Amino acid sequence: MASPRITPEPLDSFLNLWEEECAEITQKLTESNPNAEFRLIPYKEFIYVDWLIFAEEKRNQGLGTKFFQELIEVADEINCPLALTPDTSFGSSDESRLEEYYTRFGFIKNIGKDRDFSTNHKMIRPRKNS
After folding, report:
1. What stretches of the chain show up as alpha helix (H) in DSSP?
2. Which is more confident, 17 or 54?
3. pLDDT tens digit string along 9-27?
4. Which of 39, 77, 105, 119 could disulfide-pair with 50, CB 3.0 to 4.6 Å?
């Protein structure tokens, strides 16, 4: 009797599932953060925060903090690392201030001997269980 042959799922299937997961997270965050404009991208094993924007009159009201707290909660639930690169293109005037802000949410600079070479983004938030 021949043993059944086990074939791994194609990489495309995995990526499609990951894209669906990211779409669900985006939908959830969109519903709970109506003032946020943002884009999340599945990037290898990371969720990459491509950009997050609030209208000028909505800034400095804790909305970004609320957004990141919810994103981190979801990422921790699915044990997914986050990645981002601080950028002043969307309204902030100081990249180092952004880095300090993201550090409050557990992001670390992706440099030095502990650098994660699977991403080229400047900051990562490792898996909760890593």
Report:
1. 11-32, 63-77, 95-103
2. 54
3. 444 444 555 678 888 899 9
4. 39
